[in-house]
Amino acid sequence: MKAARIHPDFFEQFTCIADKCPLTCCQEWKIAVDEETNQRWKKLAPPKTVSVQKKALSEYIIEKDGERVIGLNPVHRCPFLSENKLCRLVRAYGDEVLSETCTVFPREVHEFEGHEEETLMPCCPAVIDLWRAAGTVQFPEVPGVGHDGDNEGEEMILLQIREQIIRLLQKEQKPLREALLESFYILLEFHKETLSEHFVSEYFSDKTLEELETAIREVEVPLADTIAECSELLQDLAVNYRKEGLYLCYLDPVIEEAEALSDGFDAQELTEKWMAFQSQFLQYEPLLRCFLQNEVFSDLVMPEGNLEQMILQLQWIAITCTAIRQSLFLKWIREGEGPLSYEDVRDYMVVISRMTGYDEEDVREYLLNSFETLVWDWGYFALIVGNGTVPKQ
Ligand code: SF4
């Protein structure tokens, strides 16, 4: 029997905006070429308009980080992208000529044991535009999860936990940072026990969540420490991309501000700036809520995954979100602390998502190399997410 395929409510509304795209996926990125496309491209000549002429399309393919990808030109663009941002291959040969990556992007599919999930990646500005226009997003129920009290098997329980975390993120009266802090705390508690459906229901009950909310609000995490740590995280994430000359117009200004911050800062002044920034940033909370729910839906539980991997993925989602927030804060300072534009928010969501779009193995390796412990303690998670407390005078 064919597995049920489910997707969020916005999935079918996606259309590529091609030449109108402000941040095309045909530049500064690894564009994978599958073996079947490689074989087809051996028999096709490049259109005459491609500036560097080679015998066959396959000759434009290179190996990078163990992957077969299209070799970008010296300004990091796909050699088949025309000046007016259209694909020369599609114009010459039709959509069928494209590699699987170019055909499918920004869609992704995860194949679980009993069903398949489709979603859209935030690495595309048209996806962020969709969420902005919609204001809220809805995710499908996974067949068999959480309704009949019979969620057998680890995967079903992990999917049940994911459903509960998405519910937490959907509560408009709950600040996003609190939803993240509560979710991470609960995952760490689960990590100490044998997972069971009963245990999940108990932890996500209204009573337990209320107690957790009260306890978390009492924890003081000085804002200046959060800002300083997030600056360091952003600098670490950006190192290799800057070395390769990628995303420089987005990264250089914010990394220069981050470096200035590392040289020393006045905690009081920095905190005041942050509060002023938050009053601007708050207008994009509904958009961030959509972004975060999508991250959780698409990345928190992987096929054949386990609880530890789920915890690592939540850490990675926290890194992604805090890097977006930190970039926007630093850019806002850099540009005179005025209004924060939607275009800036969208562009940093896209660029940081492209930079952090690692697979599970790469996420694990990055975390292993960058932190003392693979699974963080709750205090470190709270340090980077922040809990909005201002140090007492
Ligand atoms: S980033 Fe999205 S909208 Fe832009 S060219 Fe790629 S698929 Fe199309």
Topology readout:
Blueprint: E1 4-6, H1 35-41, E2 61-64, E3 67-70, H2 88-93, H3 100-104, E4 107-111, E5 115-120, H4 125-134, H5 154-170, H6 176-192, H7 197-203, H8 206-217, H9 223-243, H10 248-262, H11 267-281, H12 285-299, H13 307-334, H14 342-355, H15 360-370, H16 378-385
Parallel strand pairs: 1-5
Antiparallel strand pairs: 2-3, 4-5
Bound molecules: iron/sulfur cluster.
Largest sheet report: 3 strands, mixed
Number of helices: 16
Q: How confident is the prediction overall: mean pLDDT?
A: 93
Using the CA coordinates, give the radius of gyration: 22 Å
Shape: globular
Residue share in helices? 40-55%
Find the structural class using helix and strand composition: mainly alpha
What distinguishing features does this structure have?
393 residues, mainly alpha, 2 domains, 16 helices, 53% helix, globular, binds iron/sulfur cluster
Structure in words:
This protein is mainly α and 393 residues long. The chain has two domains: 26-104, no CATH class; 146-393, no CATH class. Helices cover 53% and strands 6% of the residues. It has helices spanning 35-41, 88-93, 100-104, 125-134, 154-170, 176-192, 197-203, 206-217, 223-243, 248-262, 267-281, 285-299, 307-334, 342-355, 360-370, 378-385, and strands at 4-6, 61-64, 67-70, 107-111, 115-120. Bound molecules: iron/sulfur cluster (SF4).
